[in-house]
Amino acid sequence: MRFPITRPRSLFNRETARDDAMAGVVLGVESVPDGLASGLLAGVNPVAGLYGYLFGMLGGSLVTGTAFMAVQATGAMAIIIADVDLAARDDPGRALFTLSILTGIVMILAGILRLGTYLRFVSNSVMTGFITAVGINIVLGQLDDFTGYEAAGGNRVLRAFDLLFNLGQVDVPTLATGTITILLIVTLRRTKLGALGLVVAVVFGSLLAEVFRSFDRDILQLQDVADVPRGLPWLTLPVLGEIPSLLIPAVSLAFVGLVQGAGVSAGFPNEDGTPADQSQDFIGQGAGNLVAGLFQGMPVGGSMSASSLVATAGAKSRTALLYAGGVMAVVILLLGGVIELIAMPALAGLLIVVGFGTVKVDQVISVAKTGAVPLTVMTITLVLTMIIPLQYAVLVGVGISVLLFVARQSSRLVTKRMVFHDDGRVKEVDPPDEVPPDEVVVLHPYGAIFFATAPMLFEQMPTVSERSRNSVVVLRVRGADDAGVTLLDVLERYAQSLRDVDSKLMLVTDNRRVIRQLRVTGTTEVIGSGNIYQSTAFIGEMTRKAHADALLWIEENRTIGKGRVGDEP
Fold first, then answer.
1. Which tens digits make up the pLDDT trace of 274-284?
2. Domains and CATH numbers, the chain
3. How is 435-475 classified by DSSP, letter by letter?
4. I want to staple 133 with a disulfide (CB 3.0 to 4.6 A). Which of 43, 121, 382, 445 is the partner?
5. Whole-number average pLDDT of the chain
6. Distance separating alpha carbons of residues 172 and 149, to the nearest angstrom
7. Are 36 and 347 in contact (CB under 8 A)?
C-alpha cells in the first residue's frame, strides 16, 4: 500500500487544479447543511455532524486508495448512532468522539487484516432489507422536527403511529416549511444547480421560517438545539472508560461503513488507472474516523452520494476533497452566525429526501422476484432493523447471511458414483442405496464439504449391511481445505461399519492437511494408512489407481475366502 500522505507532491497538480477547485467548492458548500442534517439524524449535536464531514473527509483523503472516496457520515451510520443512546451517558459529547475513534481503530484493523474478502458473505437480500429499513428509519426519525409535534413511543414506528393519531397537534407553519423545502430540493436538483439545489432549498426554507417567526410562530432553529461555535474545534481525547460499552456499536458502525465504502471502491475507479485497494480504503476510512473523533466529529465512512457528487462536479484527483474541506472550514469560520439560523424543519425535509432516496424500490423488487428464501430473509432483516437497535440489527443481519450461506452450501452437496469402463471412459450415475457385495463403489461428492455438509454426505453414501461383504468404497474428496471434526467422525464411522463386514474404505484427497488431520486424530488407524491416496496434478490418476487396487484386493479375498482389512491395499 502506498498512502498519498507519504507523497505530498502528488496531491497537487497544476493541470487539474482548476477542475479540482470547482468540484471542491460544490462538495464543500453542499456538505455544510448535509453534515448538520447527519448530526441531527444521529440524535447528537448537529455540529458534530459538520465536524465529522470536515475532518473525516480531510483525514480519509490522505490515506484512501480510491481517489474520489469522500469519507463522510452516512444515513445508515447516523441511525446506528441514534440507537446507541449517547444522551444517557455522563458526557454524551466525549462518548460520541470516543465512538468515532473506536470505530476508526476497528476499520484500520480490518484493513490491516484484509477482512474485505469476508464482505462477500453478506448476502444481497440481507443488505437490501437493512438499507431499506435504514431509509424508512431516516424518514420516520424526522417526523417530529418536520411536523412540530413531539410524538411519544418506544421506537420510531410507535412514534409514527402516535403522530397519526394526533394530526390535529401538527404545527402548520413548521409542516409548511419542511414541505416547501422538500419540493424545492426535488425541483432544483433537476436544474443546472444540481446538488447545490439542496443548499438553496435549505436556505429558502430557513428564510421562510424567519417570516413565520416574525408573526410569533415558534419554529425551531439550529441555535435552539445546539450551540454553533464561531471557530474550528480543539483536540479532544477519548474517554477510556466508555470503550467496553461502545465496542459493539463501533463494530457495527465499522461493518456498515466498510460495506458502503466497498461500493464506492467498486463504483469510482481511479482516473490514472491504478487499481483500488479495498484494504487501503478500509484504513483510509479508519483514519478519517480517528481525525474526526479527535476533532469532535461523529463516526464517518465512505459516502456514495458525496463521492458521486465530487466526481460528477468534474474532479480530476483527490485534491478536490482537500479543497472541499477548505471550503467547509471557511464557511464555519465566516458564517457560523448564519448557520445557527437554519430551520430544523428545513433540515428535516432534507433528511426525508435522503431517506426516500435510500430506499431502492427496484432492488427490493429484484430480490422479491428471486425467490421465496431471499424475500423471507430480506423481510426478516427489514423488520428486525425497524424494531431493535441498529447496532444489534447489523450483527443479526451478518448472522442471517452466514446461516443462509451454510444452508445453501449444505443443500448443494450431491454425491455421484463413478463407473469405470474398459475403454477408459467414466460414467457418473446415482450411488446405490446399499453397498453391494464383491464390488468397488467409487463415490465423488460435488459441493463444499465442511461441518454442515458432512452429515449430508453420510446420508448420500450407500448404507452398509450384512450383505456388503468383501467390497470397497472409494471416496474421492477434492477441494476440501479442512477435514473438521464432523467430517472426520463421518469417515471414521463409515470406515468402521465397512470393517465390521470385512469390507473397507479408501480415501483419495488432494489436500495434505486433510491427510495430516486423519493421522493426528487417529482416523487413519480405522481406515488404514495404505488406503489413503494423495492426488497428483493429473486429475483422476490416483482415483484410477485406488480403483485398480480395490479390484485386486477383492479378487485376492475371493481366493482366500476371507476379507482382510489392513494397512496395505
1. 666 788 889 99
2. 21-405 (no CATH), 414-560 (3.30.750.24)
3. PPTT-EEEEEEES--STTTHHHHHHHSPB--TT-TT-EEEE
4. 382
5. 86
6. 10
7. yes
